[in-house]
Design a protein that fits this description.
The complex is a heterodimer. Chain A is α/β, with parallel strands linked by helices. Chain A has helices spanning 16-30, 58-69, 90-98, 114-121, 137-151, 169-180, 209-212, 227-230, 237-244, 248-253, 274-278, 284-302; strands at residues 47-52, 73-78, 104-109, 125-131, 158-162, 184-188, 204-206, 218-221, 259-261. Chain A folds into two domains: 11-135 and 288-305, Rossmann fold (3-Layer(aba) Sandwich); 137-283, Rossmann fold (3-Layer(aba) Sandwich), CATH 3.40.50.1370. Chain A contains twelve helices and nine strands. A five-stranded parallel β-sheet of chain A has the order 7-6-5-8-9, covered by helices on one side. A four-stranded parallel β-sheet of chain A has the order 2-1-3-4, sandwiched between helices. Chain B has 14 helices and 18 strands. The chains are: A alpha/beta, B alpha/beta.
């Protein structure tokens, strides 16, 4: 197996075979995290820079641990306390970082497209850890991996993605990935939070959450941000929760074997309640666990390990 | 001076003939189809070349005063001259805003000192372009403004627009309206649609433009005062203007070369030189804009030349300012449109010569005896590639860098004086 990609910008750029490869490597790495000594040497001497220009707990920690379990050196930079606050542009910052010869930059960024510009400008691998409303490919990979782990297949699964689709990179990346594997995807949101052009994705769009719950195999809730209220995308949290929140009564409508997912962080009481996150259907913590394996696989493949895998 | 043996094309007088043009001092004094000159001194040999009226760019931002790091009257003049543009209509969003006779006087004075192209300023409609109080239109006119516009700070308040139209008409000034409902364009950075969704960029709906085009037409009809709507970009805007013209209303409009030649696909690589307002639209819009020129619904092609420094454009797409330069690519774009879309050359030349002159009520835009000797001479067969080092503007934010064009400016003559010569 040869890994031909330099960068991971979006799921849009990956083929189904690429994703299968990532999943296979992730599976082989999952076991490492159960060992007493959770470290193997393949990326020894490699340097991974974690550039996080937006707050992040899960993704950043997941990448950092993933890199360390593979013996890479990591340096984490966040927007606060960095030259970003002094107005340095991303390209200037990256050129400076490049002078220190890292092998990979993992970037979380508030504006769409900029990881792509970095990828074009810099010789090292760029892994997009979320850019604006564009893509969050590693999240989608771990989500789809988690679904496949649970069901054993993706083809034909009925997946609901519920919430602020318009402002969600998670939703977009999941749609692109799930469609490659033949899932039936339905986007559920008030019309104010649905972007134009979803018809080109081959997905269904629905404004009545309750009507589609009984057929769903997966309900993926995406976060709703409170500032969207001031921006007039919805009335208030009470009404949002009433129509689009996943609560106990809705969990009870779900069919047998169906699962609940959420990329985190949770807005408890708005898009999801305690009853839903704590129900047996919730795989939210499995997502986090798989995220680590997926990110180990990605670092391994992008940092050259892939060339040695048969 | 004799301009000998060129193909003289003048939309104003509908002359398309091989012949000679005689320039005496600052005026054209003779047009001789078939040729007349027997002199061989003080001549320009125009054999095989097009001799056309100097172009009038009805919408440009020269950034002077206030943003001289982007462009100034000197570099803007150089770029215009190299582009065959002899008259530049300079928008008012300088710093300070051109909302008072003192600023107008400064611009006119500096343009005169530079002495290359004719620069005619537009005055702001409202003080500071804030949409609250009328600007001193009459006093600015006395200093030389030729039109009124708040351009990128469009007048939201319809009562204010009514008063702007009435007050401008009092002084015989045409209002140029930038159609944008800012509440609808919001924080959008490109055309809203499937592509913006895929790129993760917030969209500007076509409706943000169209509702204002419709409003402008209605207020113009109601006040019976003409209005010029600048840089329309959508099929529906075209349809609104078409209906208005069908009713005989005094509506005119312009479109930019980039909206005629490019689509939103140019944004796919997050190239900030594809970011402008209105945003690049879809192929269907582009096709209708071209149709609009053929059917005379579009009166003018204007560049909306908007220089921004590299430091400003070299940012994330969301953060980069709106706007692209265009003075040096206007004429090549015109010829490209003529060649590729079967648009009559005379018709498309009228969009950059006599039509803007008539709308603003300024002289020029024609090659005829007694008119200003503003003449552009073009080699229609020269094939060339537009490269960054050719750009005379201080800013290099052109979406056409790397494009190959057919047709190149060879001479630009203003007031009987050669201000640009190729090579």
């Amino acid at each position: 197996m040869i890994w031909a990609h330099k960068d991971l910008i979006g799921i849009q750029d990956l083929g189904k075979d690429d994703i299968e490869n990532i999943f296979d490597v992730a599976t082989s790495f999952k076991e490492i995290s159960t060992r007493e000594i959770k470290k193997i040497p393949p990326l020894r001497g490699k340097t991974v820079v974690l550039l996080f220009y937006e707050p992040s707990t899960r993704t950043r920690m997941s990448f950092e641990i993933a890199a360390k379990r593979l013996s890479a050196d990591t340096i984490a930079l966040s927007a606060s306390g960095s030259s970003f606050e002094k107005g340095e542009t991303i390209l200037d910052a990256a050129r400076n970082i490049m002078a220190m010869a890292p092998d990979c930059i993992v970037i979380r960024y508030p504006y769409a497209g900029s990881p792509k510009l970095l990828a074009r400008a810099l010789p090292c691998s760029i892994i997009n850890a979320g850019d604006g409303f564009h893509e969050h490919p590693t999240q989608a990979l771990l989500d789809i991996y988690s679904m496949r782990e649970h069901f054993g297949y993706i083809d034909g699964l009925n997946v609901l993605i519920v919430g602020d689709i318009m402002h969600s990179r998670v939703a977009r990346s999941n749609v692109y990935g799930l469609k490659k594997f033949g899932a039936n995807v339905t986007l559920v949101a008030p019309k104010t939070l649905l972007p134009l052009g979803t018809d080109e994705w081959g997905v269904d769009v629905c404004t009545e959450f309750d009507s589609v719950i009984p057929d769903a195999d997966v309900i993926m809730m995406v976060r709703i941000q409170k500032e969207r209220m001031q921006q007039r995308f919805f009335s208030d949290e009470r009404e949002y929760a009433f129509f689009y929140g996943l609560d106990k009564s809705r969990v009870e409508q779900m069919k047998e074997g169906a699962i609940i997912m959420h990329p985190g962080p949770l807005n408890r009481g708005v898009e999801i309640t305690y009853d839903a996150t704590e129900s047996a259907r919730s795989v939210i913590l499995n997502q986090v666990e798989n995220g680590l394996a997926i990110r180990m696989a990605l670092l391994y493949l992008f940092l050259g390990g892939g060339k040695r895998v048969d | 001076m004799w301009i000998k043996g060129g193909r003289i094309l003048d939309p104003a007088t509908n002359i398309d003939a091989l012949g000679d043009v005689y320039v005496e001092g600052e005026k054209i004094t003779g047009i001789y189809p078939g040729g007349r000159s027997t002199e061989d001194e003080d001549i320009i040999d125009a054999a095989g070349l097009l001799v056309i009226p100097g172009l009038i760019d009805m919408h440009a931002h020269l950034r002077d005063p206030g943003f001289e790091y982007k462009e100034d009257i000197y570099t803007g003049s150089l770029a215009a001259a190299a582009g065959g543009i002899t008259t530049v209509i300079a928008m008012a969003n300088t710093e300070p805003v051109n909302d008072s006779p003192a600023v107008t006087e400064y611009i006119m004075g500096k343009a005169k000192d530079v002495g290359l192209v004719r620069i005619l300023p537009v005055g702001a409609a409202t003080k500071g372009q804030r949409g609250k109080e009328l600007a001193e239109m009459g006093l600015m006119k006395a200093e030389g403004i030729v039109g009124i516009s708040d351009d990128g700070a469009p007048i939201e308040d319809a009562f204010m627009l009514r008063k702007v139209l009435e007050y401008a008409a009092t002084f015989g000034l045409r209002v140029i309206s930038h159609p944008e409902d800012k509440s609808l364009s919001g924080s959008g950075v490109m055309n809203e649609g499937a592509l913006s969704t895929r790129l993760g960029l917030l969209g500007i709906p076509k409706a943000a433009e169209e509702v204002m085009v419709a409003r402008d037409v209605i207020v113009s009809e109601f006040t019976r005062i003409p209005i010029h709507i600048t840089h329309i970009s959508t099929k529906e805007s075209m349809d609104i203007v078409k209906r208005a013209k069908g009713k005989g209303l005094p509506i005119s409009c312009d479109v930019t070369p980039h909206h005629l030649l490019l689509t939103e696909q140019k944004v796919s690589s997050y190239d900030t030189n594809a970011k402008m307002y209105p945003p690049l639209r879809e192929e269907i819009d582009r096709a209708f804009l071209i149709k609009g020129i053929k059917e005379s619904i579009i009166d003018v092609i204007a560049t909306d030349h908007a220089p921004h420094a590299r430091d400003e454009k070299d940012l994330d797409f969301d953060l980069a300012p709106f706007g692209v330069i265009g003075l040096q690519t206007l004429l090549p774009a015109i010829i490209k449109l003529h060649l590729e879309n079967d648009i009559d050359l005379m018709k498309i030349l009228s969009c950059v010569t006599i039509n803007p002159a008539r709308i603003l009520g300024i002289e020029g835009g024609t090659i005829s005896p007694g008119s200003r000797a503003d003449i552009t001479i073009v080699d229609p067969n020269a094939v060339w590639t537009f490269t960054e080092d050719m750009i005379k503007s201080k800013s290099k934010n052109s979406p056409f860098i790397g494009n190959t064009f057919k047709g190149k400016v060879v001479y630009t003559i203003i007031n009987g004086r050669i201000v640009y010569q190729e090579g």
